[in-house]
Every structure is written in structure tokens, then in C-alpha cells.
């Protein structure tokens, strides 16, 4: 059998790479005129979604497609915009990936879904719903809305979330919160660590729970809250004075629970873990 010259092999490989690169990435842009009650949903199987505020009467979507094995299905129904990634037969995580950059009115209602992510939302003031399997979630500088986040393994980070109704759930991912406050803040993880840094606001109801992960809360000196912490099998500690209050905590093993207040106890803070450690520390 006649052997193929090495130079021809290299040329063929380079040609294939150039052709692949030429069709590997394309961008598509979608613009929609909307009213004051805008609702935007973006659903992609593989890919990241980044959302920032734009014009008050427009939704702008820039989609980056990695191949011709996927397409963008979009439609507008009144002030509702729906963007969905449609995968063709044979698409995988690379060829089926579509990344989105989205600009919406700052007070719009937003829904995002991606298996891989990352999912990034910033500087909005409407209700947010974010879902992902392994997607990393980063939400920062948002206010005055409901923030609902659910992942399976993806880590969640919330930063500068004010006056919100916050509910975060993950099976094994970690949850990190910094300067997060509101009337209701819930964080639940099956095996991931929960970290909180902030003053727990005023008049808020906070509850953090994990099965096997640790919980670490770092608060400033001026915090005003009522604390209750308990771990069935893990150690629990606080490194600054709490005003004691009467309770049923005497039934717990020493070192596995504490209750007490700081300041006027304007917020309620409940920390629960089955086997993880809980630590309340002062910044």
C-alpha cells in the first residue's frame, strides 16, 4: 500500500482546522421593543448567560454559537421574551454550546436556566429565578426583588443583595453570601459549605441549613440579631459575647448548640447542620 506523504497529512489537518475554525463560532443578535412589565427567560443546555441592565424599553440578546449543530429559538409575546437553545442530533457539550449576553430593563423579571453555565446577573431590581446543574451562579448588586436560585452541584455566590426575598438551594454546591439582607433569606445545601458575611440587616428572617457542610457567619460589631445554632454531630462555637436567653437548649450536648442575642435582636438568625461545624465570628 502506498504511504501518504507526511506533508499531505499536515496540510489536510491544517485545512480541517481552518475550516472548523471558520464555522466554529458565529454571533446572532436579537432586539425586542418592550413595555414596563418585561419578562425575559433564557434557557440553554450548554453555555453561559450574562445579564446586565440596558435600555428601559428594549431587550438585546447576543448569542454566540459554537457550531451549526445548535440554533436559537426566540419569540416575543407582548412584553414576554423567550430565548431557547435548540440542539440538533449529534450535538454535544462543545458543538451544542450557545453563550448569551443579555441586556434588559433593570426592573424586568428574569428567568435563567443552564446545565453548565456560568450564570451571571448584575445590577438588576426585578425578580430573578436561576437554575443550573453544574453551573456556577454569580449574582451581585441587585435589590428589591425575589432571588431564587437552585443548582445540583454548582456553587452559588451572592454579593450586595439588598432588600430582597432570597431563597438558595443546592444539593452539593457551596453557597457564599456577602452583604446579603432582606425580609427573608434562606440558604440550604446538602453537602456544601455555607458562608455569610454581613450584618443580617434589620427585621429580617435568616435561616441557613446543611446536612454535612459547615456554616461560617462573619458579622460586624454593630450587628443586631437573635442567634440560634445547632449541629447534631458537629461542633458549634461563637467567638464574641452573646446575651443568653432561656430556651430548651439545655437538652443539647455542650458544644453542639448556642442561643443568644446581640444588640436589640432586630433580626432572627437560625443556623442548622446535621454533621457539619457551625461558627459565628465577629469581623
Q: What's a quick, concise take on this entry?
A:
The chain has one helix at 6-24, and strands at 26-33, 39-44, 49-53, 58-65, 70-77, 80-87, 98-104, 109-114, 119-122, 128-132, 137-143, 146-151, 156-170, 175-189, 194-197, 205-210, 215-219, 225-231, 236-238, 257-262, 267-273, 278-282. The chain is mostly beta strands. It folds into two domains: 24-120, no CATH class; 136-283, no CATH class.
Helix content: under 10%
End-to-end separation: 76 Å
Estimate the mean pLDDT confidence. 90
Which residue ranges are poorly predicted, with pLDDT under 50 across at least 5 consecutive positions?
11-22
Sheet of most strands: 22 strands, mixed
Shape: elongated
How many distinct helices? 1
The helix/strand order is: HEEEEEEEEEEEEEEEEEEEEEE
Tally the beta strands: 22
Q: Which structural class best describes the helix and strand composition?
A: mainly beta
Rg over CA atoms, rounded to whole Å, is 24 Å
The number of distinct structural domains comes to 2
Determine the strand fraction and express it as a percent band.
over 45%
Amino acid at each position: 500500500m502506498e504511504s501518504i506523504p507526511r506533508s499531505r497529512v499536515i496540510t489536510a489537518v491544517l485545512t480541517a482546522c481552518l475550516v472548523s475554525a471558520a464555522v466554529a463560532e458565529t454571533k446572532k443578535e436579537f432586539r425586542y421593543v418592550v413595555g414596563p412589565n418585561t419578562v425575559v427567560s433564557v434557557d440553554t443546555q450548554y453555555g453561559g448567560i450574562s445579564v446586565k441592565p440596558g435600555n428601559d424599553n428594549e431587550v438585546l440578546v447576543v448569542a454566540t454559537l459554537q457550531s451549526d449543530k445548535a440554533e436559537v429559538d426566540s419569540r416575543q409575546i407582548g412584553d414576554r421574551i423567550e430565548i431557547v437553545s435548540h440542539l440538533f442530533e449529534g450535538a454535544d457539550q462543545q458543538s451544542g454550546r450557545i453563550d448569551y449576553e443579555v441586556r434588559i430593563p433593570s426592573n424586568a423579571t428574569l428567568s435563567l436556566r443552564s446545565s453548565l453555565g456560568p450564570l451571571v446577573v448584575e445590577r438588576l431590581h426585578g425578580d430573578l429565578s436561576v437554575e443550573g446543574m453544574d453551573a456556577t451562579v454569580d449574582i451581585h448588586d441587585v435589590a428589591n426583588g425575589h432571588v431564587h436560585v437552585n443548582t445540583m452541584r454548582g456553587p452559588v455566590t451572592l454579593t450586595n443583595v439588598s432588600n430582597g426575598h432570597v431563597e438558595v438551594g443546592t444539593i452539593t454546591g457551596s453557597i457564599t453570601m456577602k452583604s446579603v439582607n432582606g425580609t427573608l433569606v434562606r440558604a440550604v445545601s446538602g453537602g456544601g459549605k455555607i458562608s455569610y458575611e454581613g450584618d443580617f440587616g434589620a427585621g429580617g428572617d435568616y435561616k441557613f441549613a446543611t446536612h454535612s457542610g459547615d456554616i461560617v457567619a462573619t458579622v460586624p460589631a454593630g450587628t443586631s440579631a437573635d442567634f440560634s445554632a445547632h449541629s447534631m454531630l458537629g461542633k458549634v462555637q461563637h467567638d464574641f459575647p452573646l446575651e443568653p436567653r432561656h430556651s430548651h437548649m439545655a437538652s443539647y450536648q455542650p458544644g453542639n448548640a448556642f442561643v443568644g442575642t446581640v444588640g436589640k435582636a432586630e433580626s432572627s438568625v437560625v443556623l442548622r447542620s446535621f454533621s457539619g461545624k457551625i461558627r459565628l465570628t465577629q469581623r
